[in-house]
Amino acid sequence: MAIIHVDGQDYEVNGAQNLLQACLSLGLDIPYFCWHPAMGSVGACRQCAVRQYKDEDDDKGSLVMSCMAPAADQTRISIEDEEAKAFRASVVEWLMINHPHDCPVCEEGGHCHLQDMTVMTGHDRRRYRFRKRTRRNQELGPFIAHEMNRCITCYRCVRFYNDYAGGTDLGAFGAKDNVYFGRYAEGTLESPFAGNLTEVCPTGVFTDKSHSEQYTRKWDLQFAPSVCHQCSMGCNISPGERYGSIRRIENRYHGEVNGYFLCDRGRFGYGYVNRSDRPLLPEWRQQPDEEPTTLEVDTALARITDTLRHSQRVIGIGSPRASLESNHQLRELVGADNFSTGIEAREQACLALMDDLQRTTGLHTPTPRQIENHDAILVLGEDPVQSAGRLGLNMRQAALSRREAMGEKIGIPAWNAEALKTLGQDVYHPLHIAWPTATELDDVATRYPLAPEEIARLGFAVAHIIDPAAPVVDNLDPATRDTAQRIADDLMAAERPLVVSGGSLVSDSVLQAAGNIAQALARRARQGGLVLIRREANSTGLSLMGGQTLDWAMDELTEGRADAVVVLENDLYQRLPAQRVDQALARADIRVVLDHQRTATLARASFTLPAASFAEGDGTLVNLEGRAQRFFQVYEPGYLRPEARIHESWRWLHALAAGLRREDATDVNLDEITAACAEAHPALTGMVEAAPGAGYRIEGLRLAREPHRYSGRTAMRANLSVSEPRPPQDEDTPFAFSMEGYSGFDHPRQQVAFAWAPGWNSPQAWNKFTDEVGGHLSGGDPGIRLIHRQPGHRDYSLRIPAAATAENTLRALVLPSLFGGDETSARAEPIQQRMATPVVILCHIDAEALDVHHGDTLVLGDSPAMTVHEQDDWPTGWAGLPAGLLPGLAQGEALTLSKTTGGEP
Amino acid sequence: MAEPVSTSTLIGSDGFELHPADETAILEQLKHYEQPQAACIDALKIVQRRHGWVPDDAIPAIARVLGIGPGAVEGVATFYSLIFRQPVGRHVVLVCDSSSCFLTGFDELKQALVNELGVDYGGTTSDNRFTLLPVCCLGACDGAPALMIDNDTYGPVTPDDLPRLLEGYP
Amino acid sequence: MSQSIPSQRQSTQYRSRLLQPETERSADTHPLTWRLRDDGEAVWLDEYLRKDGYQSVRKALNEGDPQAVIANMKEANVRGRGGAGFSAGLKWSLTLQGGDMPRGYLICNADEMEPGTFKDRLLMEQQPHLLIEGMILGAYANNSFYGYIFLRGEYVESARVLNRAIDEAREAGWLGPDINGSGFDFDIAVHTGAGRYICGEETALINSLEGKRANPRAKPPFPGQSGAWGKPSVVNNVETLCNVPAVILNGADWYQGLSGDRTKDGGTKLYGVSGPVEKPGLWELPMGTTGAEILERAGGMRDNRQLKAWLPGGASTGFLLPEHLDLPLDFDTVGKEGSRLGTGLLTVVPQEMSMVALMRNLEEFFARESCGWCTPCRDGLPWTVKLLQALEHGQGEEGDIELLDKLAADCGPGLTFCAHAPGAAMPLETALRHFRHEFEQGVGKPRGEAHEDPIPVGQV
């Protein structure tokens, strides 16, 4: 802590920060552009000048850039100094020289940091009377629009894209007043984190193309605090809605999970919510192949309960992409004995093992942000960027943070970004990745291209080196032994070693190996960590809830032990081979499917109930840390589309259960459902605390979903009726479908629908909601951890796989895939444009055996043609296939690939 | 589905190949430095020596040889004034426009060059023989006004000297 | 005709030369140039060794005390000849070394691009071994394991000469492992640039050396703490390094004595003059020689023109007036007059030259050579150019000169990221101060009505 004096006032600040950050954290406004809390200082824009005095007696002082000056104890500055103010006005005037007067047609307008800073400095008229320079723009792919005329050359884009996120195709080109930020050649931005440019750019150079097509100003959007449903990371998001469709997704700051950044799957994958083919009404289908007829709600409920009541046994199939509440209500409907999680057996076993390892190995699971403080990482059988998007950014920061340690030795503060970059060029904390093919982290990592069993054997070997009490791996080849030694040395030398693994390989032995390493490290009493990546948004939650496997459910149906099935938000064809699902569904007389997407499973339903997506409903998810997080309904679909009958699945299921009991479906609210769920499942008890209940008020007010400048509410439905109905009432949450309500920052709160503060319209407004800039939300970061270390003892796993022997079969190695590997986001148009063309990765030997070469095509049955990608070090006997390419394909399944026969490739 | 984007796992697309001798020369440069990026400017010059300029497709090709990003290579290629990212003539005339030359007849010399060549700064003569560019102080101020043609520095140069001087560069 | 082309090329070819004959130069008085030949050919290794070459390396390495080299340099107070005038010895003493600090780099700044400056070219083209010797000493003092000569790409002849000399030195054991049996290893590579004035800024130079865009780096940390590839690095100008061998061989007192009682800055300086003088050229003279003496050596103004103003050391120094000609040209004296010694090569401005036009030329240079990193430089300087263009054509508007005042003030030291924009501001500020009336003559219009606020504030 340090005391600084600002304009005659004394403040206590964090002395490790620079003056800009310290002052902003105090709530003092200093304009800035190039500085970013996550990326540190570079001193380029010169906007944050203040006057600094040497000491008490110095009345002259000199102008300094507050971002480049330490907030050292007894620093004396003046923000209000006239000369400093005049200089700051000059800087904005220069930046505006070439900036177009296109705010009215600019998509950044209304949440533009440049607008905010221009107003803050008081620049309101142009003295520059000469010609402005103009630019050409680039086509940068389906996610990002480019308008270089607006650029103020703050260099934030390249600093984020290249330095922070490891991208290589974006650059700063040219020099002098002709610096151009773009791609080296026109084309799609390659980084899976490119979408953050839309928030990192202080003005409208990089904007969200998905938003463009249905543009709405920030102040006209309705928001709710939400949680990304596209992987297990649980990033906090702030989706914005207008006229009944989601218009964009912005980052919602969370100090421990996602900070300021999202991955592109999460940001641009929301399009499935807006699909025009979504089921809006209950549907009924007598025969599997006939066109469905729509039903009114009461009719649908009555018919479904009627038929279910006549069923001998109803199986409920839950879903790891649905909320805990919905899954629990399904379980209540069908009974615990008839409830399946909807997860394939091997995956479910892995999920259970992951929960267990998190509790018993003795290592703590760090938050994503805490990952950045780990000084050696081993990734065993995961490709974190592909399987958990945002997590990869945290791991990259961990590798890069070696420079901070180096800088500390010679007095370079952690915020001096360029200096640290210079000092620690190509020097990283050790990051070892055992994964068969290239990952986005390879530039800062050492990667071992191994097959799943070999990855496990390597892991077991590492554990044995760290703790000789861990089982020894027999017949270990010398190369693997050396690798294991190197990895073990790095982990043992580290202050805070981290083991990362997960379910991508669906391999018990890989996870057991990770567990052994974690346990071996825990015995050394270091502050190590264990991170285990799950596949879907609520995989962890479902695992904690428990239930039978999907395979069990299929068997029960196929073997005639049940004659009805209720499927919750789950496309079974994504999880098991089509034949097996067909067989099972064919045996069920009644197939009730609740979903918000027209999946293959829904197409087989006898009854369909239109479920709410994350945007239209509330619920709770548990992320890969074990953090339960609440997501809130963004908008009420029935308000703008009165014909729609979309409801949360938990609401439908509650009504069905009431119907089965021949009771009236009394209304129910989220708090009751959540409480019931928590009560029924000891592992989920804490979920009630994930967010405040519906009764929460600030100063007696509900929380507003709409900014106070929200316009056009009274005319919103004028196309339907000139009389404005009462806005929808939200009985489930403390949020109001209105601009009326609290939306300020002065009362600390965790659940922030949108960040806005007077003078701060851009995403930088989040800095007003945090305890210190870049710290935690001032009301605490949302969510509650449900998985805790348990005292006790875990025996080392002895399940070491045997060394691979040469076999003739080719097995599927399904590779997690950020774009396409997630069921729902793969239905969003921009994500579809980013999916890779179908490829199959083979080693040279296997390619030869199939008589194909790099670039040839292969098929599996009636699959689309897949281009052969020969990879020199790819493990023999495996065919690498991106997830989502062949639905229902099991990890490790034996494959018979055949050459395409003529015709189209 | 749309065109694949070139991610590291997929098959690369563009076809430009560095001349083997150029690649060797670039790799030779790496020996002088701690990090491969340092050879970036040398690499661009090597390519430029062969092609006269640095063609677009050479950017990712150089990036691959050096193991750095194409964005970084293009950033460097467009920063430095002696790396040409557009085709130039067989000979490049760099005319010094800095203060000492400005004080000793630069304006006349430049005008004479424009008349002689028929092109202004950035232009290339229609016979593809000369490209005219400004250059910052050539460090030949005691011979001002000065200019450079390819690797040769001249000064003081009068407008009258130009025709025969240029004749030496067919 | 065909025979006349080579001769034309020959006769117009530029050659770097010193306008002092061998007879005038001696080892005692001209440490930088006494070995130079009248015929202008390079002094190669044999000749260099005959003329006491590498004696100082022999001496320093035999004594085996790098700190003594630094102490000597500090005492001699050899101030940076690239223009900043910072004590080389002090810089060396601040370089991190020892402990677990890795050995770093000794970088010679040979990116001579300051308009009006042509001195380093002479040293490199004609006496490469003096620079190499200076670099060995610098490397020894700073525990540098490798050296680079960062040479501007246009200095083709310098590159040729230096590369040959480095080969000679390596062959003879003056470079490479175990130099002269001392156990000290050091080698040098010539790194040629690809244009851009900003590469002369020492941290931008390091970025360029690393193959990056030549944006300067923030200081601190200084290169001595974290320079090339994050290793402790020393960047010295060619002329500065060329001073080192004589200082080490003859001692600090001798060096101090070279300038007599003209100034407290020791040693000699390569002074020069360019612009409309009779004999533009270069001379090694005692530090503190006056502008008048130098101008006299240049034969005075060409064609009896009148001197209006002069830049003492390149485009980034402030304008001085004829009345300043009798001041000793050292770092501090010139500094007191609102200018800087800079590189010590004078640019003279004749009476008939429009200061507005000249300023426009200078600001065009600075605006064009801005790296584009910080706002005042990148966006402020082009505005000054446009204002000056308007003034030059009588299109200036009321308020333009005040705007130029403000732009010059806003580009001052500390406000911009590096010294580039302050270098542009200094001549502008001094020109506006000394020759304001010339600028005022360019104001031909009232403030443009079109730019006035069409709707008064508060009435919207």
From TrEMBL, chain A:
Domain 4Fe-4S Mo/W bis-MGD-type: 221-277
Free-text comment on the cofactor: Binds 1 [2Fe-2S] cluster per subunit.
Organism: Marinobacter zhanjiangensis
Family assignment from sequence similarity: Belongs to the complex I 75 kDa subunit family.
NCBIfam families cross-referenced by the UniProt entry: NuoG
Protein name: NADH-quinone oxidoreductase
Keywords, ordered alphabetically: 2Fe-2S, 4Fe-4S, Iron, Iron-sulfur, Metal-binding, NAD, Quinone, Translocase
Record-linked InterPro entries: 2Fe-2S_ferredoxin-like_sf (IPR036010), 2Fe-2S_ferredoxin-type (IPR001041), Mopterin_OxRdtase (IPR006656), Mopterin_OxRdtase_4Fe-4S_dom (IPR006963), NADH_UbQ_OxRdtase_75kDa_su_CS (IPR000283), NADH_UbQ_OxRdtase_ferredoxin (IPR054351), NADH_UbQ_OxRdtase_Gsu (IPR010228), NADH_UbQ_OxRdtase_Gsu_4Fe4S-bd (IPR019574)
Role summary: NDH-1 shuttles electrons from NADH, via FMN and iron-sulfur (Fe-S) centers, to quinones in the respiratory chain. Couples the redox reaction to proton translocation (for every two electrons transferred, four hydrogen ions are translocated across the cytoplasmic membrane), and thus conserves the redox energy in a proton gradient.
Top-level class of the enzyme under EC nomenclature: translocase
PROSITE patterns according to UniProt: 2FE2S_FER_2, 4FE4S_HC3, 4FE4S_MOW_BIS_MGD, COMPLEX1_75K_1, COMPLEX1_75K_2, COMPLEX1_75K_3
Catalytic activity, as annotated: a quinone + NADH + 5 H(+)(in) = a quinol + NAD(+) + 4 H(+)(out)
Domain 4Fe-4S His(Cys)3-ligated-type span(s) in chain numbering: 83-122
Quaternary structure annotation from Swiss-Prot or TrEMBL: Composed of 13 different subunits. Subunits NuoCD, E, F, and G constitute the peripheral sector of the complex.
Entry-linked Pfam families: Fer2_4, Fer4_Nqo3, Molybdop_Fe4S4, Molybdopterin, NADH-G_4Fe-4S_3
Cofactor(s) required for function per UniProt: [4Fe-4S] cluster; [2Fe-2S] cluster
Domain 2Fe-2S ferredoxin-type: 1-85
Known EC number: 7.1.1.-
PANTHER family per UniProt: NADH-QUINONE OXIDOREDUCTASE SUBUNIT G, RESPIRATORY NITRATE REDUCTASE
From TrEMBL, chain B:
Statement: the UniProt record of this protein carries the keyword Iron: yes
Domain of life: Bacteria
InterPro entries: NuoE-like, NuoE_dom, NuoE_N, Thioredoxin-like_sf
CDD domains reported in the protein's UniProt record: TRX_Fd_NuoE
The keyword Transmembrane helix is assigned to this record: no
Cofactor: [2Fe-2S] cluster
Keyword line: 2Fe-2S, Iron, Iron-sulfur, Metal-binding
Xref: PANTHER family: NADH DEHYDROGENASE [UBIQUINONE] FLAVOPROTEIN 2, MITOCHONDRIAL, NADH DEHYDROGENASE UBIQUINONE FLAVOPROTEIN 2, MITOCHONDRIAL
Family: Belongs to the complex I 24 kDa subunit family.
Protein name: NADH-quinone oxidoreductase subunit E
Source organism of the structure: Marinobacter zhanjiangensis
Gene of this entry: nuoE
From TrEMBL, chain C:
Keywords attached to this entry: 4Fe-4S, Flavoprotein, FMN, Iron, Iron-sulfur, Metal-binding, NAD, Quinone, Translocase
Domain of life of the organism encoding this protein: Bacteria
Bias (Polar residues) ranges: 1-15
Region of interest: Disordered: 1-26
Catalytic reaction(s) noted: a quinone + NADH + 5 H(+)(in) = a quinol + NAD(+) + 4 H(+)(out)
Enzyme Commission code(s) on record: 7.1.1.-
SMART domains, per the entry: NADH_4Fe-4S
Domain NADH-ubiquinone oxidoreductase 51kDa subunit iron-sulphur binding: 356-401
CC cofactor: FMN; [4Fe-4S] cluster
NCBIfam families: nuoF_fam (TIGR01959)
Family: Belongs to the complex I 51 kDa subunit family.
Protein task: NDH-1 shuttles electrons from NADH, via FMN and iron-sulfur (Fe-S) centers, to quinones in the respiratory chain.
Record-given protein name: NADH-quinone oxidoreductase subunit F
UniProt source species: Marinobacter zhanjiangensis
